[in-house]
Each structure stands twice: as C-alpha cells, then as structure tokens.
Hints:
- The protein is α/β, with parallel strands linked by helices and about 280 residues long.
- It has 9 helices and 10 strands.
- It has a 10-stranded mixed β-sheet, sandwiched between helices.
- Helix 1 (about 10-30) packs across helix 2 and helix 7 (about 230-235) packs parallel to helix 9.
- The chain is globular, with a radius of gyration of 19 Å.
- The relative contact order is 0.15.
Amino acid sequence: MRTMVVGIDGSPASYAALEWAADDAARRGLVVRIVHVRGPWTTEHPLTAASDHQTLTERCEAMLQQAATRAQQQRPGLEVTTAVVVGAVAERLKHEGHSADTVVLGGLGRVSGRVLGSVGRALTGRLSCPLVIVHEPARQLYGEVVAGFDGSADAEAALEYALEQAQARGARLRVLYGLQPPVQAPHPVGYGPIPDGIHGEEIEQRLTPWRQKCPEVEVTVSVVAGNPVTVLARASRQADLVVVGSRGLGGFASAVLGSVSRGILRRAHCPVAVIRRPGRTS
C-alpha cells in the first residue's frame, strides 16, 4: 500500500495537515503514516512535562495516538500507522519521503509566512515525492485544482499530479501559464534565460495526452500576464489545491525556489503541492 506521511508536532497547523491527509488518503486509497520527529538531545523528563511521572516518549506516543484517533474518526476505515523518529526534523522527514506517496506538513499561516519553522522551505524541491503544505482546515470546497505550468519537465510532473487529484476529487483542472515581462538582468544561476513564452494553442496540444488519459476530468487553460505568485495567489482563492513544479524554465515552476517560494506558500489561500519530477538528482 502506498503511504502518505504527515508530520505532527501538536500544533493546530499540523492537525490541519492531518485533516487534509486523511481526506486525500481516503480518496486515493492510501495508508496514513503519522510521524513525530523528536530531537536527538531532548531528555525524557523535560521541565514542561505534564507530570513528574510522564516521560517525553509517553507524551509523544499519546500525541500520536490522539492524532490517529482523530484521523480515523474523520475517515472511518482509514488505515493509520504512527511513528516517533529521532533526529533533525527536515532530514528525518526527507528520509520518510523516500518511500512515501506524499509528505504533508502544516503551515503557520499566510501572515507569518513560516512553514513549520524552516522545515517546509528546507524540504521544498528536495523530496522525491510530492510535498503538500496546508495552512488551515478547508472552510469551503470549490471543485477546482489549479496547476501552474511553464512547459518544463517538473511542470509536466506537477500536471500529472494535479490531474490525479482532480480525478480523485471529481473536480475540474485549471492549467495556468504566466506571461512575465521581459527580464533584462542576468538570469539566476542554474535556470537559464527566461523564455519568450509559449502560446495557449501549444499548451492545448501538450494537454491532449492528459485529456485522453482522463477524459472525465474537465481541463481548462488560462494564459495570464503577471507575477507568478500574484497570479497563483489570486487563483487559490477559489481552488481546493494549487500544484507547482519544484524547478522550471522561468514561469510558475522555477518560482517555487528562492524567495518567490515563500511568497507562494505564504499567500496561497488553499493547500500547495510542490512536485519534483521523477529521477531528478539535483
């Protein structure tokens, strides 16, 4: 069985991630693995312990059991496992991602712009599986998944994931392509020059195989002029999920890395999935 890993630290944000993971796992037939990462130098009897007789291990296990119960009450019949692992949070979650279908983390809200401290930023683009960041529980469902697209290999992988999500949700898929103004300054190291852009007709042609693969999913294309973060943030207001690649040619996908990534994760009004193409080594 494929596994969806959820990082839990007891915060409301991590429980929002758990809620998202439980729903998605139930839709796609996955097992939820709830993981709490414990620091290697923490003591068994911290000063903040609930009582003199409760060890840190017992507190962690109780938190995980509570989380498992919560997920199973939300989705009866959902298969859930739990684990306490020891080490640096980002590295341990990266290791968990090697065998996972998805890793899900909670964000600390759009205002603060932080995602479980630095963990979300540290993992962005480094996981071999999709990384989903959830800010808060969904208050409304819109029946739409948004995929940022720039024609790159990572954006193609993001498109495949977005299509899978739309199919599982019975939602439509909106493919967004951003036309940015010409850039005069030297391009960032590792990306190459920003392309002139591709036309809506070409995007439609590249979507043909995906439409044939999932004909039941309604797919629309929007070519929009503007900053990728602004365009995606606007689209996220009426979306259930925004999906982007972790590296691209200069449109949405490459924007996920560097300072723009924090803008997308901070300003999105729905969960954000960051996808790295299979086999990429850097």
